[in-house]
Amino acid sequence: MENQINNICAVGKRKTSTAWASLEKGSGLLLVNNQSLDKYFSYISNDKNKIQSLFLLANLKDEYDITIQLKGGGLSSQFDAASLAVAKCICDAKPESREILKKNGLLRRDSRIKERRKYGLKKARKAPQYSKR
């Protein structure tokens, strides 16, 4: 049973990157910050087809248009945030695909973020050089 909602939105985060994904009925068009996926993530070689594989897992190929807005962070964390946002959109559009996506670990947010710097240290854990005398 699919939702009859025309526009489905979701947010995905990773490190300092935030992705807002919007899913609409369409022909399979994928835009990232008003550019194609391959053009925007041209420097990322690993898992470029991860977002398209989400639709293959949910049997939704070429049924929806996706628009993703990204902000903050680097390309790798933006890509992970975008794939999480799209996975959440797919779960809203087709709830029965949730189990498949969850089993493949595509609905889990990676909670690792940069550790804050502590006073008395040079970085988060790096201490100044110790001198005995």
Automatic annotation (TrEMBL):
Comp. bias intervals (Basic residues): 114-133
Keywords: Plastid, Ribonucleoprotein, Ribosomal protein
Disordered: annotated segments: 113-133
An annotated Gene Ontology molecular function: RNA binding
Listed NCBIfam families: PRK00132.1
Pfam families per record: Ribosomal_S9
Protein's UniProt keywords contain Disulfide bond: no
Gene3D superfamilies per UniProt: 3.30.230.10
UniProt similarity note: Belongs to the universal ribosomal protein uS9 family.
One GO term (biological process): translation
Key word Ribonucleoprotein present: yes
Designated name of the protein: Ribosomal protein S9
Chain's gene name: rps9
Protein origin, superkingdom: Eukaryota
GO CC terms, sorted: plastid; small ribosomal subunit
Subcellular location: Plastid
Annotated InterPro entries: Ribosomal_Su5_D2-typ_SF, Ribosomal_uS9, Ribosomal_uS9_bac/plastid, Ribsml_uS5_D2-typ_fold_subgr
